[in-house]
Automatic annotation (TrEMBL):
Name the record gives this protein: BgtE-5715-2
Organism, as annotated: Blumeria graminis f. sp. tritici
Domain of life: Eukaryota
Length: 300
């Protein structure tokens, strides 16, 4: 009798072990299938997902705002400062309607993108109310095929970039030719450029007309040329906004100074770009070099 009871206990333990192994195996199989399924492409911010195309639309809008000189226009806001303005990082808030699961509800502290002076995206940030700080959103890349990406590539064009402004070389030459008379007479010598091998350098303003919200908008930039009428560099102005403490009043107490409200200030910065290669400003004709003005200006 004892032997039968012992055999029954052993068989029960064996059956229990078999069921446990099968359960663990099934759970592992389910977890493996879940892990093998790729996450949805885009930027994952807490419970929100932003599509790459939507973030690109926001980035392009923020980039265009660099060149709007009107005071009432929305401008990129400085996020991170540096000793060199060319290394500053800026931010631009993301509309709530772009979040996939937001249902268009506006948040008190919206998510935002960060980017540099060249309009290169440096991050997508989401505000965490628990820690009261912004966290970097996780980027889940798309599964791309090398064949399709090669087919969709555009032919390489000769262009140059300074700050947020990217221009084809032929476009700069066209702008200069269209304004050749006034353009050649208005050059100003670049300070300290007489020491260059191809100096002195001179600079003048050109304009590019673009359409913004169905309205024509003129973007101004400067080109620097050497004594052979070859372009050596470009200067671009960025219109930005910075946040600083409000001016203190004489009767403000210490508590008010510690909890002083910050105000936003419109500013502009100048980005000077010297090109590694040079190109002719007037390739199809010889342009007369006017007498160089004795008036000198710095590139501040």
């Amino acid at each position: 009798m004892k032997n039968l009871r012992y055999i029954f206990i052993i068989q029960s333990l064996r059956l229990g072990a078999v069921f446990l192994i099968l359960s663990i195996s099934a759970h592992a199989s389910v977890m493996q299938r879940r892990m093998s399924q790729p996450a949805e492409p885009g930027y994952h911010c807490n419970n929100q997902i932003y599509l790459f195309s939507d973030i690109e639309t926001v980035r392009q809008k923020a980039c265009k705002a660099f060149t709007y000189p009107r005071k009432e226009s929305r401008r990129p806001l400085v996020n991170t400062y540096s000793d060199n303005v060319e290394n500053w990082i800026f931010e631009w808030s993301i509309p709530a309607c772009l979040a996939k699961y937001s249902k268009g509800v506006n948040r008190a502290t919206p998510d935002k993108i960060t980017f540099n002076n060249s309009c290169e995206l440096t991050g997508v940030l989401s505000y965490d109310s628990a820690s009261s700080k912004y966290n970097l959103c996780a980027k889940v890349p798309e599964v791309s095929t090398s064949a399709s990406s090669r087919m969709n590539q555009d032919p390489v064009k000769s262009f140059i970039q300074c700050g947020s402004l990217s221009l084809e070389i032929i476009e700069i030459q066209r702008h200069a030719s269209a304004q050749s008379t006034r353009f050649m007479e208005g050059f100003v010598e670049v300070e300290n450029s007489s020491f260059e091998v191809d100096g002195p350098w001179r600079r003048n303003v050109l304009g590019k007309i673009v359409s913004v919200h169905n309205r024509l908008h003129n973007i101004y930039y400067e080109v620097m040329i050497n004594n052979q009428n070859e372009v050596r560099g470009m200067v671009v102005t960025h219109y930005i906004r910075s946040v600083g403490p409000a001016a203190a009043k004489c009767n403000d107490n210490k508590h008010d100074l510690l909890h002083m409200k910050k105000h936003r200030e419109n500013r502009c910065i100048r980005l000077v770009c010297i090109f590694n290669t040079k190109f002719e400003l007037f390739p199809n004709r010889l342009a007369l070099i006017p007498s160089i003005s004795r008036k000198r200006k710095t590139l501040k």
